[in-house]
Write a structure and sequence with these properties.
- The protein has one domain: Lipocalin.
- The chain is 18% helix and 41% strand.
- The chain has 3 helices and 11 strands.
- Strand 2 and strand 3 form a beta hairpin.
- It is globular, with a radius of gyration of 18 Å.
- Keywords: Signal.
């Protein structure tokens, strides 16, 4: 009986901890470190990827179960770091990386249900083209894609008709 009670208590505690793990993000002034505040008032450092030189756009999911950021890498052709990977970490500190189709990821969001992310990719300069992807946090699979074409008249129509998940991504 005591073992069953302890197991039930452990299950409730771990569900509560997972449901609201992250409270805030704190990006350093030079964008080279990212501190994450948990529900238990602990501060942990966000892990960086091997080629990462900066962090960008940190966010906590609406249900506080995940935290994410852009991993910026040095770029041979620019004087600034480029956001190539979206990194999302769950309450157990498991990391999922999203690189999409190889283009830089310039903006992103957690969807309101906290079960998926959406992000926008485009080339560095000289186009109206934007590619959006929606991905599952559970397994990383692609849930949907949408494009704003380069042609101005097609671009305007695509923006008017964009699905709601695309509109979650800041513009």
């Amino acid at each position: 009986m005591l073992i069953r009670f302890a197991a039930a208590l452990l299950l409730l505690w771990s569900a509560a901890a997972a449901a609201g793990e992250f409270k805030a993000t704190h990006l350093s002034a030079d964008n080279t470190t990212l501190a994450l505040t948990t529900a238990h008032a602990a501060t942990v450092s966000a892990p960086s990827l091997p080629d990462q030189v900066e962090f960008g756009s940190p966010q906590v999911s609406p249900d506080q179960s995940h935290v994410g950021w852009l991993a910026l890498e040095a770029n041979c052709c620019t004087s600034y770091a480029v956001p190539m990977t979206l990194v999302v970490m769950d309450g157990q500190h498991r990391v999922r990386k999203f690189v999409g189709n190889g283009l830089p990821i310039f903006d992103w969001c957690f969807l309101p249900d906290s079960k998926s992310v959406a992000y926008m990719q485009t080339v560095l300069h000289g186009t109206n083209f934007e590619h959006f992807e929606r991905r599952s946090l559970d397994d990383g699979r692609l849930l949907a894609e949408y494009d704003y074409p380069d042609d101005p008249s097609e671009n305007a129509s695509a923006r008017r008709n964009a699905p709601a998940w695309v509109e979650c991504v800041p513009q």
